[in-house]
Write a structure and sequence with these properties.
Helix content is 23%, strand content 20%. It is an alpha+beta fold. It is globular and about 60 Å long.
């Protein structure tokens, strides 16, 4: 499944090759890929015809392209792209055969030349999705709750209403150790978070963009068991975990981001991101690269968790008492 680094590669490609270009035609090949569009396919087509895209933005795995019809106007709406499990965004020449599982096609004008030496940009943006969990839809832009920029790639304090519930992601510079510690260990009400730390970092309302693979990698780096109650983490523990999350994401972005020609924005789960430099995920039965223990795979929320039993020890369960029953 595409995760935050893959989504960021797509955002950078869209920003470089699509921002500033106008939509000339809209072809919805499969209406299921615009199922989240209020008003259906006709509303999606009407909203985008003639629209000119502004800078591409991202929060977590949500990507959006704000658009305007008047160059002097501020964007009020954006087309949101969610890759789901198998979504791809491709920039291709119209003469190229349609890819298998093509769902949406946007024909673009020549736009500004954003790449030195490139005078003829690919004319079509194609959304391809084999499993149809992803899609595209237009969403109104609303102010961010904290008045800060909506996400990576934008200075506007706006975010699509459909993504308003998504917390700032791992790579957002507004995260600091103190803010992260409170979000990790406390509920919005102030009560302790007693759920396991992996469940918390996978909760997109707490911190966005962390998927199963990167969660296991960061927990390995931080020497934390996935079931350790989040409320028991000290500021030192949470600081190490935040550093690990940021480091894992940045390294994956640096390694995987170079595997694509950015002219052809392509995320398909076969990029080799996950095969490079993984320390825990997918290494069942192999030696831990830190302590020499044997990596194990355990069931977790319908998926798997990988850890080293020696340096990511299972937390001791607290005995249930009458005092706990009164809490």
């Amino acid at each position: 499944m595409p995760e935050l680094p893959e989504a960021e590669v797509v955002r950078r490609g869209l920003d470089r090759w699509v921002s500033g270009r106008r939509v000339e035609t809209v072809d919805i090949v499969d209406a299921r890929s615009v199922r989240r569009q209020e008003g259906g396919p006709a509303a999606f087509e009407s909203a985008l015809l003639g629209a000119r895209f502004a800078a591409a933005a991202r929060r977590g795995k949500f990507l959006w392209l704000p658009f305007v019809r008047d160059a002097a106007a501020e964007p009020r709406d954006a087309v949101v792209t969610h890759l789901g499990m198998s979504g791809q965004v491709l920039l291709q020449d119209p003469a190229m055969p349609d890819p298998r599982h093509l769902k949406i096609r946007l024909t673009l004008d020549g736009g500004p030349a954003r790449h030195e030496g490139t005078s003829d940009l690919p004319g079509e943006l194609r959304f391809v999705d084999q499993r149809i969990f992803g899609g595209m839809f237009v969403s109104p832009l609303v102010p961010t709750l904290d008045g800060a920029p909506g996400g990576a790639g934008t200075d506007l304090p706006l975010i699509p209403a459909a993504a308003g519930h998504i917390a700032r992601d791992v790579l957002d510079p507004l995260w600091d150790p103190s803010t992260f510690h409170r979000a990790l260990t406390r509920l919005p009400s102030g009560r302790p978070r007693t759920t396991g730390v992996k469940r918390v970092i996978l909760d997109q309302a707490v911190i966005s963009g962390v998927g199963n693979i990167y969660a296991d990698e960061a927990l390995w780096y931080a020497s934390l068991h996935y079931d350790r109650p989040a409320s028991t983490l000290t500021r030192t523990h949470s600081g190490i975990l935040l550093e690990a999350l940021i480091d894992v994401m940045r390294r994956s972005l640096e390694e995987g981001g170079t595997s694509f020609d950015s002219l052809y924005v392509n995320v398909n789960g076969e990029s080799g991101y996950f095969a490079r430099s993984l320390q825990a995920y997918g290494r069942e039965g192999r030696d831990c690269l830190r302590c020499g223990g044997r990596i194990v795979r355990e069931p977790f929320m319908g998926r798997s968790s990988y850890r080293c039993p020696r340096c990511q020890r299972r937390p001791r369960l607290k005995k249930f008492t009458a005092a706990d029953a009164r809490v």
